[in-house]
Write a structure and sequence with these properties.
It is a single chain. With 478 residues, the chain is an alpha/beta fold. The chain has 15 helices and 20 strands.
Amino acid sequence: MAHPQIKFGTDGWRGVIADDFTFANVKTAAGAIAAYIHAQEDPAKGICIGYDTRFGSRAFARTCAEVVAATGIKVALANDITPTPALSYGVRERNAAGGIMITSSHNPAQWNGVKYKAWYGGSGKPSIIAAIETYLDKPAPQAKQAAAIEEVDFLPPYLKAIESFADLDLISKSGMKFAIDSMYGAGRTILSEIFTRIGVDHVQIRGNPDPLFPGINPEPIEPHIRMLGETCVKEKCDAGLCTDGDADRIGATDEHGNFVDPHKIFSVLLSWVLRRKGWPGAVTRAFNTTKMLDRIAQKHGRELIEHGIGFKFVCDYMLEREIVMGGEESGGIGFQRHLPERDGLLNALLLANVMAEEKKTLGELVADLQSEYGEHQYGRIDLHIPDELKNAAIARAKALKTGDTAIGGMAVLRQETLDGVKFYLVNPEAKSKPNAAETWILFRASGTEPLLRIYTESTSKEAVAKLLESGKKFAMGQ
């Protein structure tokens, strides 16, 4: 029987603090994870538990530790606020059976969550999450004597890993200046401390932990990232580097204060990896991610794999075969040779690395890509609408046929339904632009809330704005 208040999503369960995210429910979730480990992993390997800067996270993590230890599984519990990728790295480095991270990532302040990290150092696969859910209404096995809970610092081995992955020497000699924004989250002053140590000029904002995330959601996109853009201009920085609430996602701004979306970050990093590093493997990207990646992969003779939305799909591919890089629309980008996991801090260091190696600002790197691969502009809106309106919009979208012109006055070229409903459109503007980006729009309904997301990519910012407006009208049945 499913638990009425605990529903595991892509890599865990999240809820509103004091509403459904309560100590009682956290105990239930922790008990289910412990029961799963006893049944399907090696409980003798123990479990790692970390937490972010959200309200109550430390106390919720301690509660999880006590529940798990009572079943006889030893616990390595973080002694302080920990970025999600550092916890994931700790799970793999310690050869643990799994890990629990108390975080709600980029959600607003009233949310918190329990994420499960598997033994390989990444999000639990859907089969693992489904197995954990089956134990939600069963009592966890109790040991005669509780196992030990040891407080540990997950940061040193993790920092060593990301610092050796990026070329700090090159960054230190670059003469570049950076703005760093941790959005009051678990990234805290980690990048600032690295830059201070290697002598890189920088300015830090929002590096203090604050569970209220004053004035923002800790999500590295517009409008929350605006302060970083303003800081870049004011302090004459070459780029702004931003991590989300639990530091597994990245966002950025250029030297002019413009938001550099995750698609462009992914493209900059992929182009650099294939040109400069030549690391082997295919490239993976989510269904709602820029097609510029396809062009970069094609130029370098790499297979590009398109998959469903969510980092779990990237993780699955990384466990099955050789993947150089994989990522998703929301700033989650991972490298197989590091971890099958998103890592905002590593990606921030790597962006600095690319800038240092190419001797270019972030804005210049993006402009280079746009001129080489064609201008790709991207936009997204989230419509908070009742479920019946949301479901009707998806049904209407599925009914559209090739040649129909229901969106933006552009004819439908083809429809794809891998994850949501996506239309490739015939854009007259593309005829006058050599190497023009393909124009597409995607409608995707949330499975857990009254929310419809609309994503689009086209040849100009103006085209994107028009398509989003037209998409919104279509969704509302206007």
